[in-house]
Each structure stands twice: as structure tokens, then as C-alpha cells.
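Data deposition worksheet. Section B asks for the primary sequence of the deposited chain exactly as it was used as input, without tags or linkers unless they were present during the calculation. Section C holds the resulting structure in C-alpha cell form. Section D is free text for depositor observations; keep each observation to a single sentence. Incomplete worksheets are returned to the depositor.
Section A, Depositor: J.P.
Section B:
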Amino acid sequence: MPRPVLATIHIAALRHNLQVMRQAAAHARVWAIVKANAYGHGIERVFDGLRGADGFGLLDLDEAVRVRQLGWRGPILLLEGVFEQRDLEVCSRLNLWHTVHCDEQIHMLATHKTEVPHRVFLKMNSGMNRLGFAPQQFRAAWTRLNALPQVDEISMMTHFSDADGDKGVLHQMQIFNTTVQDLPGESSICNSAATLRHKELGIDAGDWVRPGIALYGSSPDALVHTATEWSLKSTMTLSSKIIATQTLQKGDSVGYGSTFVADKDMLIGVVACGYADGYPRHCSTGTPVMVNGINTHLVGRVSMDMFTVDLTPLQTAGLQVGISMGVGSEVTLWGHANNGAVLSIDEVAKSAGTVGYELMCALAQRVPVLVDDNQ
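Section C:
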């Protein structure tokens, strides 16, 4: 039989999360962001769950081609725009909308030969200081684009640096609103956190919202709200099985570096999953894990192909309800257990000192993936 580690993609959860985002910004249209191969889920796997969106946002032309090949005829937005002149030929052929964030991209458009003008999203740097025109340069860039026969409609966008934190967005929103005042065109300003929190943040959601991580069931402000509090459902389950058990005596260690030493006699389980599968090596003793739907935790150091968990909580539960804890027992690294319990990816990410985004995107190619389309 194959090695038991498995990732499962839950299509019904994707549909649910998309609806949550629609309800959060009821008057806006929704870009489903599928960059980074749909946050590690796979564009082809998530398409049926997200095809109810108004458009797809992504980064590179290969991803755009894949979405078109799936039969999508609606808007596709290149979030970083084009990287070289010939990319515009693909935009013309596939009818791609694209971001314009620098003078070089305007020059590419000005020298591009096309019979069909392009829909572009002009990006403002309102404080993130990555991509976009500075506010004092923005209107001049808009004027240059508006004069080009290669350009059709111009929308305006920016990106918030602190929509998930205490600093908020009002300082950036004031800069954006002041700069675009009286300019015609739609706006796109809200990422996942701003889409869910826009009323609390005191802003309008704009014409297009751009949810990414929330579509995949991770909280965009995990330090403040859990995914459950936002009514988001996990869309990826990483699971495996116990492949061996060991009995530790008090004073015994386990794993590389002997980083965990038992302070009492205990039973541990060996899990067929490691950092080569995408499970973070930085996870340490105490990281939450579920075995047969019962909460327990990792002990020792994560290695390439396996790590160990404390089975003591199952020993206690097993005395009560006869729960198995031996070889073949189900292990949930994040997502849904067979008994309906859920371990949030955000909890695991916190133990690894990172965010749910990274764990999703780090899923290794060697892990088989199952698509679950049960309603």
C-alpha cells in the first residue's frame, strides 16, 4: 500500500467560504485569488469550488492559461501585471486584465500592437511600499494610460499593509480617496482581512474585493479572530496514520537531538509525515495534533519523513469509549478528522512561528491529493 500521508481538498468548504466573503461585502464583486497554485491546493482542484466568483486573480501567465483551459470565460486579473513586452500578446489573446504599477508597464502598453484595448488596474502605493505609483505620481500615470488607444477601462487599486492589525487602514484609505477623487473607474482595495473587517475598519468595500487566504479556511487576522469566529471552514486536510508505537520510560528521549525527554512513563506514536511532506520542521513539542479525533500534541523534533506524538490523552479517552491508539490510527495534522473534529491550520502555524498561508503553499509534491466534493 502507499505511504499513508494524504491531503484532502474540500470543495464544499471552498463554496461556503466564497459565500461568506460575498456576504461580508454584499455590494462588491469578488475576485477569487488563486495565486501560488491556489495557495497550494491546486487550481484545477479548487476551480469547481470557486467558479461562483466574479473573476480569478493570479500572478503568472501559466496560471491564467490553466484557468482558461478549465473553461472560464470571465475576468482574470494579473495581480502584478506583465513582466515583459510579449506578455501583452498573451493578455490580448486570452483577454486578461492586468495591473499597472510602474512606468515600464505603461511604456510596454504604449508600444503594444493590439486591436482590442486592454482593461487595466492602476495600482497606487498608499503605504505598503512594494508595488504601485506614489500618490503624487498616480494621477499623471492615469492620464498617460487614459491617452493610450491600447487601454480601455482603467480601474484603481491599492493594497493594505495592516488590515489585520491594530494600525488599521484609515491612513491608507485617506491617501487613496484623496488621490483618486473625481477620477472615473472602479476600485479594488480589500484583501481578505479588509473584506471581513471593512465595516469595523470604517471603510467601504469598493467595487471589487480580493479575498485570498479566507477562501481557503484560514483566518486573515488569526491573532485576533479564529477561522471559526469568521464562519470559515477548512478547505485542506493533511492526514496520516500511526505507523509504530514506542513506550518511553521516565528519562528516555525521542528523535534527533534528544530534544524531548519523558518526565514520566508514556506511550508515543510514530506518524508518517515530516518536513519533506510540507509539515514544518519548526513545529516543536506541544504543537497540536489529533489522533482518531482526540486532541494531543507532537513531542520531539520533526524529521524528514516522520515525527512522534503523545498518546497519553488517547489512553485516557480509550478507557472511557474504547478509542484505538495503535498502528493504523488516523492522525490529523490539520483540517478535518473522521469524527468531525477540526484542527485549524492556524493553530499549527502558530506553533511553527508562521502563518497558515505558508503551510498550505508548502505542501510537497510527493503528498497524494484527494478531492472531496461531498456536499
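Section D:
The chain has a mean pLDDT of 95.
DSSP finds twelve helices and 19 strands in the chain.
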